[in-house]
Amino acid sequence: xxxxxxxxxxxxxxxxxxxxGKILTEGYHKAGGIDFERKGSSDFVTHYDQAAEHAIIDTIxxxxxxxxxxxxxxxxxxxxxxxxxxxxxxxxGTNNFLHRVPHFSVSIxxxxxxxxxxxxxxxxxxxxxxxxxxxxxxxxxSRRLPILPARPLNExxxxxxLPYHHKGDCTTSQRQLAALMPHVAGIRSPGSAALEIAYxxxxxxxxxxxxxxxxxxxxxxxxxxxxxxxGCQVSDLAGHDDPDEWNSLLIAHPEQHGILRSLLNE
Length: 266
Fold this sequence. Notes:
Strand order of the largest sheet: 4-3-5-6-7-8-9-10
Order of helices and strands: HEEHEEEHEEEEEEHEHEHEEH
Mean pLDDT: 91
Number of helices: 7
CATH superfamily of the largest domain: Fructose-1,6-Bisphosphatase, subunit A, domain 1
Structural class: alpha+beta
Helix content: 25-40%
């Protein structure tokens, strides 16, 4: 079953993202602390992560019962008869959420076989829906995102994700920060990879990279579809285009992608 046979799938993804976002917003504004469990040295999961993911799966399954799922909290649910897999991060930016930093998102992508074909990144506190369909452009709500010109390197604001605790490679991140800092206007690590990648497509950031942080497919998949459809070049730092080969990520305007790759690989 191809994505062209399900023209309403994007509508369903957005509906699911909004429902999950409502759950997260209620949790964010709830008085008192947010209960959480520790998955690892630096991975936290709350009731709201789990409730949001179940809401996303239930919403999509009702409309598209044959698709499969890859969820951060629920793992793999094989498809019945479809070649579509829905990739879900119900709360990208859990640490921000726990600390009441108003920067987190719902991220939902669709993969057909090995190809990412649709992506939704929803910022619930801003009610901002960023989405894209492969070959059909990227959008902020109903507004199609323009293909922006490249900024000069010394004017670029670059997003990244950084390692913490025992998760990731601090040495690599420190080396890359030192290599890039003298050349760009600023580096930011707000804490939601899905948003930061989508922002690179929007022009809020001029590029995004990560290698030291350990990003999973559900962290980046939806944002990648948006960034590509907005005209960005997406690869790892070795130049590979296939996510299955990646252990790093670089997203930038094609005119600046090679320059940034060279700097980060120094």
